[in-house]
Design a protein that fits this description.
Length: 124
Amino acid sequence: QVQLVESGGGMVQAGGSLRLSCAASGRSFSRDAMAWFRRDPGREREFVASIGWGSAIKYYSDSVKGRFTISRDNTKNTVSLQMNSLEPEDTAVYYCAGSTRRGLWPSNDDYEYWGQGTQVTVSS
């Protein structure tokens, strides 16, 4: 089983940047698809970005496209989310997640292991 620990959250003003990191332990996740999700109180969990095992495939939600960048380093078992031009609407708890699904790109429900989350707060 893979354990995930997120870090890098905090408070920032609108227009600022943060970089979230997710460190995996337990086994290598190099063959797993990885993703970031977020949840704001009172709202449903929202997909943010995902990345394939070789980093060639990346997906972003429309709300973050062009502002956020997902990356991974399989040698260090880490996944990162660079967030630029942050907006108050980006305020949420951000979660790192992984999927062992093979053959087809995982749907949002296919992510089997999750971190505990890190809070991001963007003030206007």
